[in-house]
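Hi R.,

Here are the chain sequences for the assembly we discussed:
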Amino acid sequence: MHVPEELQYTRSHEWVRTEDDTATIGITDHAQDELGDVVFVELPEVGATFDAGDSFGTIESVKAVSDLYTPVGGEVVEVNEALNDSPEKVNEDPYGDGWIIKLRVSDEGPGFLSASDYEQFVEEEES
Amino acid sequence: MAELRRTPLYGEHKALGARLVDFAGWEMPVQYEGIKAEHNAVRNHAGLFDVSHMGEAVFRGPDAEEAVQRLVTRDVSRLEDGQAGYSAVCYESGGTVDDVIVYRRPDDFLVVVNASNREKDLEHFRSNTQDLDVEVADESDDWALLALQGPEAAGLLQNLTGANLPDLRPFRFVEGEVAGATTLVSRTGYTGEDGFELYLSPDDAPRVWRELLEAGATPAGLGARDTLRLEAGMCLYGNELDPETTPLEAGIGFAVHLDKEREFIGQEALRREKEEGLRKKLVGFEVEGRGIARHDYPVRVEGETVGHVTSGTLSPTLGQAIGLALVSPGVEDRFEVVIRERPVEAHTVQLPFYKREKK
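And here is the predicted structure of the full complex:
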């Protein structure tokens, strides 16, 4: 399980990279591994707004479908259109080309897990 | 939660890093490397499945044939020794108890049942044959079951067995040795490919498993087994078949011999249904929009619910979302599947979705 130190994490297995007022959101290496082969990512429209904790889309693998949650509130400024044709990018590069959306943050929400806290959370969840 | 049961190959799955899940009370591998890769290995090469969770019931005694005839929809008097047949088991209502494979052996009948139905089936088999001179033994724990499937299965297996595989036709079986282990080698499967099911002792199973992998088979889990059987248009009990669905409705009428002379349980109801018309029917469909139709999603025509999805997936072979649905008899070529509150267009297609090219 790969958990980059510089990112922040949620208990619903998303990662967040914050630069200025923009948050990039994807799912973790652990999440993509649990899901297996990703076949669809249902993306929101650019311009849509979400509150912290809202579901902003779904991600579907051969065997299951899960909701995607944003830990911060804000307006969608960009979605990863490449996932429409190549959803497998989420499996291949979850922290890079497999990013899902970018939000302009208006509400920072209740907070995140650090990389080490997330690792510990996953271990506890598995045991 | 009750402790999960483990097959004799549990240690092999752990060592291979399989993802293990609860399936019908068994701790089973759903995937090793990934469902798509395993699926493609079976379509193009050879895949190896552990399906030791399946149940085995053996009918012995002077009335063994009569007992099996009473219980299953196929006319097993037409089976020769060494021949197997796919069949349904029904209630008097015509609803389905299970779908099974019946193996006719010189001295007995082996009936292979779904793991999820093992206890229910054994109870049904015994309670309906009490007037007969037959013993119904649950030998499920005495057998491991490996399925070696794919176009390269025969060549790969031939290197490990003296059994004459070119002469073993589909749905025939032979007793032999595989890698030195006494094995019932059956040319059957659940993937739409050529292949074999190997019944052998739990003690021998790990070694034979390892030898088949060393010979080039790819370990494949229940995830790929499901996408493979669905592409091949095969029913899964609990999805397409259940006590409220008859085998005629589920499209396996080929396994129902309504003209069978020995009466079987459910025969009257099925005859009546055939005369009066099916109450619902199984159709294959392709989803036109985005998303995957999954079990229990509603099927609608002009806003009215006319059935439900029984199974659905993204077909790895076709790159297309496919599914099976039980719908009202009037439903024709187009309908909507409601995927998480969003209606998505779908159209019916002929089954199976995938048919291998015969050599």
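The longest helix of chain A spans residues 115-126. Residues 53 and 70 of chain A are 5 Å apart (CA to CA).

Let me know if anything looks off.

Best,
T.
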